[in-house]
Amino acid sequence: METANYSPERFGCHVFGDEVMKERLPEEVYASIMRTVATGTEIDPTIADVVASAMKEWAIEMGATHYTHWFQPLTGVTAEKHDAFLSPVSRSQAVMEFSGKELIKGESDASSFPTGGLRATFEARGYTAWDPASFAFVKEGTLYIPTAFCSYTGEALDTKTPLIRSMDALSRHAVRVLRLFGDKETARVNVTVGAEQEYFLIDRKDYDSRPDLLYTGRTLFGAPAPKGQQLDDHYFGPLKTRVSQFMQDLDRELWDLGIFSKTKHNEVAPSQHELAPVFTTANLAIDQNLLTMVTMKRVAERHGLVCLLHEKPFAGVNGSGKHNNWSISTDGGKNLLKPGKTPSENTQFLLFLAAVIKAVDDYQDLLRLSVASASNDHRLGAGEAPPAIVSMFIGDDLSSVVASIVAGETHRDAKRGVMNLHTPSIPLFAKDTTDRNRTSPFAFTGNKFEFRMVGSSQNVAMPNIVLNTAVAESLRLFADELEAAESFDEALRALIRRTFAEHERIIFNGNGYSEEWRQEAARRGLECYPTAVDVFPRLTHPKNVALFEEHGVMSVSELTSRREVLFENYEKILNIEACTMTHMATKEYIPAVTAYITDLCHTVNEKRAAAPGISCRMEEEIITRLSRLAERAYDLTDNLKAETASAATQGDIESIAIAYKERVLPVMEELRATVDAMEEYTPTDYWPMATYGQLTFGVQ
Ligand code: ADP
Ligand code: MG
Fold it and tell me: Which residues share a beta bridge with 330?
């Protein structure tokens, strides 16, 4: 493929971004939008008509004929409904129209999206509302307008609304704390997010042969290929031509959409890759991550590939996560999590660090919950991703700062050493003061935290909602205490010391994959929720309801409905997987093996007819072994149907979900093992599906 130069002027050409707005909007309208974006305060509704008209003109120039409110219902993916700008002026004449009213408010059928009981089907009205803090963009002939989504009664039915509320809460209390340190300028503290996206790329024709990938996004069957990731030769390995072409094409599309796609490389598992963007404000970063995922799938199609975003598409090799890099900075651009050269003397940094440590310890359950799903259950704690126990890595340096503060000793900050490779031609460079830890669920990486439990297919709003709100709560308590203190300095030091002492247990710098850590974590009293259904109920635990209500992020009814949606979603995913397995075993695997057995029987008969008394031991053994396995698979499909039916009768959704985990999942695993054993004895020609080898090594 020829690669034309990418001119930086092109960047963001499909986005109704700051520069386009500045150019096309009257000065005071532009200023009003910028004010709203910078301060998170109300938008002046009288400007809507002007903005709508400028947006429409621009979008039409970009080739758009339609517009859509683009929103994030609780399905985990985005939703859109396209309306033409076209409007009739007579029976045979039309104009292109788009009003401020249409920009600000859209209506949709709320009851057809997951609502967790908030909306009954007979009271279906729902609204979408323009979010001016994110960017509108044009894609495939449609103007996309990022919006929030709520019910007729005003309850949030999406992920964006509570996210924005949580960003506001954090800003409010962070600014209070900054005032105590003498900062008079900062009006807003922003949350920044950079989401590193892992994914798999496989060949379209192999994908097409697999109903499991089509219906569930992961392989439900498949014997291991002779080679997996043992040699570590895929991680950062050279890119195959087709993959590299896909990545180039993807980057260009993302850049046109104003998304700073920055880093790309091969990941650990064969056919696994990663894309990392440059971070930006949380709200925009999340919209952009969702848009990135959709774009990856679309661009892959053009290259005869399929992009798999599932957390565990293949058993036996690593699954995919999405590291959520998170930090906070002032509107003046100062990163509040930057330790500086002498962190032990930087009390403002230490206080913000203490706020995060306290938040993670106090709300371990919510952080765990924010990444819990049927699909991420296959990954967390499997020795390839962080364990299901939440802990924090802050590095040796900061750990020793914390330890000396707790012990009341003075601390000497480490100096950065120089790396000398003893090869004169290679320049010397400064070493970091601390090493990295790949196994930690929540790691401090210089001036940000990296939350690593997040799943690749997830909308990262919920992890950020939890983080923002929990840190807002720490800061609220800190500000209350410090504002009331007689001596700020004394109170500050006491508060930092007390907080570190109370929450030191959450800090763990060792190997999070080890069994010893599991035991040590239990000794420390850390919480452990091995699976999604174990942690879902925590969403409405009184301490968590109090947290979200205190900060106006989610009401008890919004939380209750979300808890319901989590369980429903879990149950539906397992139900689809169980049905797909029955379908594949009955329609594909058992008939394929039967055909092979039949052919072997003919071979035996023909061999004996040709040479009476000849040995047919091999054929007989294969026939016997495969017949036994096929019969077992047949029985297991019956069991699976019975267990699925019985799970459905368990009453409330939570009992149903638990029945799926405890009774259906084990049968699924046994059925898989049986079919995978059949695969090992069946020749390629008879096997109806692409094998693991083809799927993971098929892209050349
Ligand atoms: P690392 O070496 O820790 O991987 P990188 O600079 O490569 O750090 O960044 C990894 C990801 O973290 C990128 O997506 C990057 O944009 C993001 N990131 C960097 N700084 C911040 C920050 N202050 N806030 C949020 N995300 C950040
Ligand atoms: Mg990283």
Answer: 189
The two structure tokens encoding residue 248 = 């180039």
**CA 482 / ligand 2 centre spacing (Å):** 35
Q: Are 201 and 305 in contact (CB under 8 A)?
A: yes
Task: Tell me the pTM.
Answer: 0.95
Expressed in angstroms and rounded, the spacing between residue 526 Cα and the centre of ligand 1 is 28
3-state secondary structure of 324: strand
Amino acid at 232: D
Helices 160-180 and 461-484 sit at what angle, rounded to 10 degrees?
Answer: 30
Q: Mutate which of 325, 336, 442, 449 to test ligand 1's pocket (most atoms within 8 Å of Cβ)?
A: 325
For 506-565, what is each residue's pLDDT tens digit? 999 888 888 889 899 999 999 999 999 999 999 999 999 999 999 999 999 999 999 999
Q: Is 191 helix (H, G, I), strand (E, B) or coil?
A: strand
Nearest to 134 by CA among 150, 149, 146: 146
From the CA of 262, the nearest ligand is: 1
For residue 492, what are the contacts with CB-CB under 8 A and spacing of at least 6? 347, 351, 482, 485
**In angstroms, rounded to a whole number, what is the distance separating the alpha carbons of residues 660 and 532?**
12
Give all domains of the chain, ordered by start, each with its CATH number. 3-157 (3.10.20.70), 159-193+325-395+437-554 (no CATH), 197-321 (3.30.590.10), 569-697 (1.20.120.1560)
Given this model, what pLDDT does residue 3 score? 65
State the Cα–Cα distance between residues 176 and 179, nearest whole angstrom.
5
Token pair of 353 as six digits:
């660090």
Mind giving me the DSSP string for 297-344?
HHHHHHTTEEEE--S-SSTTS---BEEEEEEEEETT--BTT---S-GG
Q: Is the pLDDT of residue 89 over 90?
A: yes
CA-nearest residue for atom 2, ligand 1, is: 445
Q: For residue 543, give the nearest of 361, 324, 326, 374 by alpha carbon.
A: 361
CA atoms in the 13 A half-sphere facing the CB of 579: 10
Q: Which two tokens stand for residue 108?
A: 């949709």
Distance 445 CA to ligand 2 centre (A): 8
3-class SS of residue 329: strand
Residue type, 437: N
Structure tokens at 25: 């909007």
**Of 481, 525, 518, nearest to 499 (Cα)?**
481
